[in-house]
Amino acid sequence: MSMTIVDRARYLLFGDIPHQRKARASTAVADPLTRIMLMNLGKQAVWSKQDFLTLSREGYEKCMAVYACVSKIASAAAGLEFVLKQGDKAVDDHPLLQLLWRPNAAEGQRAWLRRRFSQLLLHGNSYTQAVRPIKSQPPAALYLPRPDRIRVLPGGPQGAQVGGYEYSSSGSKEVIPPEFVLHSKMFHPTDDFYGLSPLTVASRGIDVSNMAAEWNMRLLQNDMRPPGVLLTEGALSDEQYERLRESVNEKYEGHDNAGKPLLLEGGLTWQQTAISPKELDWIEGVVHNKREIASVFNIAPELIGDSQSKTYSNFQEARRALYTECVIPLMDEYVDDLNNWLCPMFGENLWLEIDRDGIEALQEDREKKFAYVGGAQFMTVNEKRTAVGLEPLTSPAGDMVLVSYSTAPLDIVAAGQTVLVQGGAAAEQGGG
Predict the structure, then answer these.
(1) How far is it, in rounded angstroms, from Cα 241 to Cα 249?
(2) Checking DSSP bridges between strand 181-185 and strand 172-176, what pairing results, if any?
(3) How distant, in Å, are the alpha carbons of 95, 105, 135, 138, 377 from that of 347?
(4) d(Cα 283, Cα 285) in Å, to the nearest integer?
(5) pLDDT reported for residue 234
(6) For strand 400-401 and strand 350-354, is the pairing parallel, antiparallel, or unpaired?
(7) Cα–Cα distance between 144 and 175 in angstroms, integer?
(8) Which range has highest mean pLDDT (40-49, 250-259, 345-354, 420-429)?
C-alpha cells in the first residue's frame, strides 16, 4: 500500500502505518471515574493553565534564587547513574543502558537528564518521547519536547484517560499517540491532566525579589538617595523650570555624580518623600525572600548562597538533605515511570535502579551503615551482605552467624572452644 509524505513521516517517527491505525488496540484498563470526568470535559482538548513563558522569564531568567535552586537540583539529578537489573542480577552492557547513555544524537545522558528535571521544576510537567521507526523494536532515540508546546488530548479508546498529545510549533501541529509519550507530572490538587510547578507557587515571592532588585538598581543609579521634591516659594517660569531640570539631570543624577552636594537657589528647598533603606530593612527582606523561594523547591538556603547560618557542618548536612529529601525522591519517581513504560520495550524482567553508592554526599551515611551492620552479631553473613546491597554467598558460610570471642561465655573461652552459630542454633567445637 502506497504512503503519502505525511504518512511516511508518521511511520518514521511513530511506527504508525495508515491501514493499521484502526487495528491498534489499547491495553489501558478502563477507570470507572474517567468516563464521568471526560463527560464533563466534553472530550475537548485541555489547555495548560500556566503561562510558562512569563514564569520562565521572570523566574528562571531574572530571579537568581530560582535559577540557583533549579540548577542545583537538575545538576545533582543528572549526576546519578542508572543500574539495570534482570531478575536479581546486574546487567553491565545492554541496549537500554546504551540508549540512556546517549538518548539522541544531540544529547548525552547528563545534558538530557538536566534538561528533563529543569522542565519538570519549571513547568510541573515533563514529556519523554520515544522514537520507534519499527514499532515492534525498542526505541531508537528519546527526546524531551518543550512542555509548553504540548497539550493533552483526553479520552482514548477503551476508557483510557489520555487519547494523545498534540505538539504545536510555529503554526504546525502533530498528534503523538499516547504509547510513545511518557508524561511525568508533579502533584496538582485541582487538575486531572497537568502538574503544578513550584515556579507557580513561588511566583509571588519571585515578583517581590525582582521588584526589590529593580528598586535597588534604581536607587544605586540615583546616588542612593530616595526620591524627593524641590519646593519653591513662588511659581517658576518655563525657562527657569527647564534650566533647573537640565541642571539636576546633568550634575546630580547617576552613580557618576554620587556624593556631589545639591546647590539650591532662589528659595528652593529639598524635601524627602520616601523612606530610607534602613527603614525598609532591605538586606533582611532579601534574605527572607530567598529562603522562602528555596523552601518551595525543597532545598536548603545554604546551598544557594545564604551565608548567615552557613557553617561547614550545616553545609554538609544541607548537601545530604539535597539528595535524601529532594533529588532521590524525584529520581525514584522517574525511574518508576521508566520501569513501567520504557523497560518493557526492551524485554521482560528488566528494571532500573539508582546507584546510591556512587553519591559522594552520602558516603558518610554509607560508612555508618557498614559499621552498624558489621557489628550486628545477630545477623547471618548473607543478611549483612543483603543489607548493604551485596549479593548473598552461595556457600554454607553465608548462613552462619559469626560472633567475636569477646561475647562468648567465659567457661567456653577458658576451655579453648570456639562458638559457631548456624541457622540460629549454637554449636560448640573443641579447641585444638
Answers:
(1) 12
(2) unpaired
(3) 11, 24, 14, 9, 41
(4) 5
(5) 63
(6) unpaired
(7) 15
(8) 345-354
| Residue-wise DSSP of 304-372 | GT--TT--HHHHHHHHHHIIIIIIHHHHHHHHHHHHHHTGGGG-SSEEEEE-GGG-GGGHHHHHHHHHH
CB 226 within 8 A of CB 275: yes
pTM comes to 0.69
Q: Which three cell numbers stand for residue 156?
A: 482514548
Using DSSP, state whether 89 is helix, strand or coil: strand
Q: What is the pLDDT of residue 25?
A: 39
Please name every residue paired with 43 in a beta bridge, in sequence order, or none if there are none. Answer: none
CB 391 within 8 A of CB 385: yes
Contacts of 60 (CB under 8 A, 6+ apart): 66, 67, 70, 122, 199
Specify whether the CB–CB gap between 196 and 287 falls below 8 A. no
- Residues with Cβ within 8 Å of 272's Cβ and at least 6 positions away in sequence, in order, are 226, 227, 228
Q: Residues 239-286: pLDDT tens digits?
A: 766 776 676 666 556 555 554 555 555 566 666 655 555 555 666 777
What percentage of residues in the chain have a pLDDT greater than 90? Answer: 31
Answer whether residue 306 shows pLDDT above 90.
no
